[in-house]
C-alpha cells in the first residue's frame, strides 16, 4: 500500500505541471500577445485588411484569388519557379506583373503604358536595395479599380 501511495505522489507534480503549462501556454500567453498586438499594431494584428468603399475586400498578406483576365493574378502558372510554397503568397516578382500587362490591356482597354506605370508605382523591395523587386497583387488591383472606375464599375 505504501508503494502505491508513493507511486501516486510521483504523478501529482507531473499532472500539476501539465495543467499549469496548458493554462499558461494555451490561454494566458496567446491572450496576452493578442491584447498587446491589438493595442500596439491593430492593423497588422487584424491581418492588414484592405478596404474599398468602406468595406473589407481582402488582406494584403494572402492571395485573394483574382482569376478574371481584367485583373493581375498572384499565381502565374507560366513561371512555377517563383510560385510560393503555400500558394497563397500575395506578392509576385515585378517581371511577373509586367508580363501580365498585355492580358490586362486586352481585357480592359487600358493603355499598356498606363498599366506599366501603375505596376511600377506599386513596386516594393525587401532589404532596401538588395532584394528582388515585387508587387502586391491586391494593392495593384485596388489601384486599378479606383483609377479606372468606368472599367471596374461592378467592383466598386
Structure characteristics:
6 helices, three-stranded antiparallel β-sheet, two-stranded antiparallel sheet, elongated, 156 residues
Detailed description of the structure:
The chain is an alpha+beta fold. It has 2 domains: 2-43; 48-155, no CATH class. The chain is built from 6 helices and 5 strands. It has a 3-stranded antiparallel sheet. A two-stranded antiparallel ribbon has the order 1-2. A hairpin with a 7-residue loop joins strand 4 and strand 5.
Q: Number of DSSP helices?
A: 6
Strand order of the largest sheet: 3-5-4
One letter per element, helices H and strands E, the order comes to HHEEEHHHEEH
- Portion of residues in beta strands equals 5-15%
**Beta-strand segment tally:** 5
Q: Helicity range of the residues?
A: 40-55%
State the separation between the terminal residues, measured CA to CA: 77 Å
Shape: elongated
Instruction: Extract low-pLDDT stretches.
Output: none
Indicate the mean pLDDT: 86
Largest sheet: 3 strands, antiparallel
Structural class: alpha+beta
What is the domain tally? 2
Radius of gyration: 25 Å
- Assembly type of the chains comes to single chain
Amino acid at each position: 500500500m505504501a508503494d502505491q501511495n508513493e507511486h501516486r505522489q510521483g504523478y501529482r507534480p507531473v499532472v500539476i505541471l501539465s495543467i499549469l503549462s496548458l493554462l499558461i501556454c494555451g490561454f494566458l500567453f496567446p491572450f496576452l500577445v493578442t491584447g498587446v498586438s491589438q493595442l500596439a499594431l491593430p492593423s497588422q494584428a487584424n491581418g492588414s485588411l484592405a478596404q474599398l468603399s468602406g468595406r473589407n475586400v481582402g488582406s494584403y498578406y494572402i492571395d485573394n484569388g483574382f482569376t478574371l483576365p481584367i485583373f493581375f493574378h498572384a499565381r502565374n502558372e507560366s513561371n512555377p519557379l517563383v510560385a510560393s510554397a503555400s500558394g497563397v503568397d500575395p506578392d509576385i516578382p515585378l517581371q511577373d506583373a509586367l508580363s501580365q500587362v498585355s492580358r490586362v490591356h486586352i481585357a480592359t482597354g487600358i493603355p499598356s503604358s498606363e498599366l506599366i506605370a501603375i505596376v511600377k508605382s506599386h513596386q516594393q523591395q525587401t532589404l532596401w536595395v538588395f532584394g528582388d523587386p515585387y508587387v502586391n497583387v491586391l494593392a495593384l488591383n485596388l489601384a486599378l479599380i479606383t483609377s479606372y472606375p468606368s472599367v471596374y464599375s461592378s467592383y466598386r
